[in-house]
Amino acid sequence: MRYCVPALLLLAVLPLMNNLPAAPVPSASALLDIGPPPKGMTAADHCKDVIERMIHPRGYIFFAGGGDPEMSKLASLARLKDEFRPWMVKNIRVTKDGEHRLRVTFRAGTRAEQVVIINALLREYLKGVERQIKAVEFALREEEKTIARNEMLIARGTEDRKSVEEYRKQNNNLRTNQLPARRAQIARLKQNTVIKWAN
After folding, report:
1. Residue by residue, what is the 3-state secondary structure of 34-75?
2. Phi, psi values for residue 46, rounded to 5°
């Protein structure tokens, strides 16, 4: 008997619960780790710089809007025609979420469209990082070739003393400054990663 009253109350309340409004679906978001800042830049300035490059009308969002195959399937963009880039710039949000982490959200369209747009922006950003890595690796290889060429000229013994000293000085500078700085830059760039893709 003591369980009858609570059971009856539960039976009376259950039909009413179906009429409650559903909780809103949270907006899609992603989390990006941009790695430590370059030498001579603070973490805050590094975040600010990356945010600006991501959301600027001629930044990564420009390329994400035009070249990503998933983006071309979006109904929102098809309706907007030539105005889709300003629409994307207006609605994208990239905010700091930790020392060198950024949260990316989008305020318009359906959740499925938000996911596509956010992930397209992240893919474009990572492509840009990969291009930077390749450029630094190319410079590193060229500097290593310069060291080898200088060593060959020194070993040949036909260069005058002044030239030999210049080659040694250049090699010393490359070995102690340039090469370590390039390797550190590559290691720093490789730390850029998507922690959480939008889904």
Report:
1. CCCCCCCCCHHHHHHHHHHHHHCCCCHHHHHHHHCCCHHHCH
2. -65, -45
SS3 198: coil
- Inter-residue contact 55 to 94 (CB < 8 Å): yes
Q: What is d(CA 68, CA 120) in angstroms, rounded to the nearest whole number? A: 6
Q: What is the pLDDT along the chain (199 residues), one digit of tens a residue?
A: 566 665 555 566 556 656 655 555 578 999 999 999 999 999 999 999 999 999 999 999 888 877 778 887 887 777 777 788 888 899 999 999 999 999 999 998 889 999 999 999 999 999 999 999 999 999 999 999 999 999 999 999 898 999 999 999 999 999 999 999 999 999 999 999 999 999 9
pTM for the model? 0.82
Cβ contact 84:50 at 8 Å: no
Give the N- to C-terminal CA distance of the chain in Å, as an integer: 50
What tokens were used for 4?
Answer: 């009858």
In whole angstroms, how far apart are CA 120 and each of 30, 61, 69, 124, 179? 11, 8, 9, 6, 34
Q: Tokens 């030999």 appear where? A: 164
